[in-house]
């Protein structure tokens, strides 16, 4: 398995697991915010503030990329925090970013 294949497998497994957890609203509400030091957050390079992303480590990142504009963000545009399919039960900051960022359609 190449690094790229391994990464895709990891991301898909993570998304699937988190999507299941996110389907239980009561649990999602009770879990609180993602910590930047959480294992998954570290693995995905998550930061609460997109301006603080390590640009050398993530050269494709731009400061216009924020969780609020990501297809995995589950909140309304005005929500400061919301669930994310990658983090399941925990909420991410609307101003945040991780390496799984994918532009919201539209
Ligand atoms: Fe979730 Fe997207 Fe934010 Fe990553 S960039 S934490 S996938 S909403």
Provide structural commentary:
- The chain is mostly helical and about 110 residues long.
- It folds into 2 domains: about 1-30; about 30-105, Irregular (High-Potential Iron-Sulfur Protein, Chain A), CATH 4.10.490.10.
- It is built from 3 helices and 2 strands.
- It has helices at about 5-20, 25-30, 40-45, and strands at about 80-85, 90-95.
- The protein has a two-stranded antiparallel sheet with strand order 1-2.
- The longest helix is centred in the N-terminal third of the chain and has 20 residues, at about 5-20.
- The radius of gyration is 13 Å and the shape is globular.
- The structure holds iron/sulfur cluster.
- Iron/sulfur cluster binds near residues 96 and 98.
Summarize model confidence as the mean pLDDT.
83
Poorly predicted residue ranges: 23-29
Q: H/E element string?
A: HHHEE
Distance from first to last alpha carbon: 35 Å
Give the strand tally.
Answer: 2
CATH H-level superfamily title of the largest domain: High potential iron-sulphur protein
Architecture per CATH nomenclature, i.e. the level-2 architecture of the largest domain: Irregular
Observed structural traits:
106 residues, mainly alpha, High-Potential Iron-Sulfur Protein, Chain A, 2 domains, two-stranded antiparallel sheet, 3 helices, 2 strands, globular, binds iron/sulfur cluster
Write the layout of secondary structure elements.
Layout: H1 3-22, H2 25-30, H3 39-44, E1 81-83, E2 91-93
Bound molecules: iron/sulfur cluster.
The site of iron/sulfur cluster has 13 residues, from loops.
